[in-house]
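Exercise 7b. Backbone tokens:
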């Protein structure tokens, strides 16, 4: 599932943008969840409690031109580089002030449907968003699960503990074998016993990360540099 946030003080614009995004989802037959946020307080509250968006449409003029500062907080304070920010404005004069935030795009209102389609197509092309399945053997039964449903894998002796959005599953395999079948742009090895789905990391610290479900997982000393590079860019 692709998760999209719209943070804009103009309710009519936000609703129309949401409608265009959902039309795209129906046409392309993919799952997209859209959240509309009226101000920065609502945005940071949901980022803190419910993880990060894949794409965030952010109004530059939010709360008297506070949108740029919101973008800086996402990059510098939350230290998230994975969430793709699309700045939206009624004027083009802000474009030159956005390079440090590394936005995916900058759109001028009113935004037409072709622009929205282009953004979503580019995200899928660049970040390989697709409903790919992870296959595993449970008992004698061959199973598969969407990669987007997996939070992380944990090695427990000869068993793998797979924590998903729908609960925990166990199967026999080596973590190194599991890792070889995963998309390296989405999954990251943080410890000899843990491989995590980066889209569900809600907090990153030097020695550990917090996942969307609240689980705190250790980062081994030997993995710290690699993990920081993958998460922070």
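Sequence design result:
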């Amino acid at each position: 599932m692709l998760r999209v946030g719209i943070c804009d003080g103009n309710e009519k614009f936000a609703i129309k943008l949401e409608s265009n995004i959902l039309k795209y989802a129906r046409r392309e037959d993919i799952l997209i969840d859209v959240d509309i946020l009226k101000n920065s307080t609502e945005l940071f509250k949901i980022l803190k409690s419910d993880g990060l968006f894949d794409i965030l449409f952010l109004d530059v003029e939010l709360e008297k031109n506070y949108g740029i500062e919101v973008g800086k907080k996402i990059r510098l304070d939350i230290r998230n580089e994975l969430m793709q920010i699309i700045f939206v404005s009624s004027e083009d004069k802000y474009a030159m002030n956005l390079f440090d935030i590394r936005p995916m795009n900058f759109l001028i209102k009113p935004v037409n449907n072709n622009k929205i389609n282009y953004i979503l197509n580019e995200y899928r092309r660049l970040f390989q968003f697709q409903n790919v399945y992870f296959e595993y053997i449970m008992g004698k039964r061959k199973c598969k699960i969407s990669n987007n449903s997996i939070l992380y894998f944990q090695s427990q002796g000869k068993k793998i503990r797979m924590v998903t959005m729908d609960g925990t599953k166990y199967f026999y395999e080596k973590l190194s074998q599991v890792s070889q079948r995963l998309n390296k742009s989405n999954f990251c090895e943080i410890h000899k016993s843990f491989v995590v789905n980066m889209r569900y990391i809600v907090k990153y610290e030097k020695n550990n990360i917090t996942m969307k479900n609240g689980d705190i997982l250790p980062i081994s000393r030997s993995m710290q540099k690699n993990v920081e590079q993958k998460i922070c860019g």
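Instructor comment: The helical segments are 11-28, 40-50, 62-65, 67-76, 113-127, 175-180, 224-232. DSSP finds seven helices and 15 strands in the chain.
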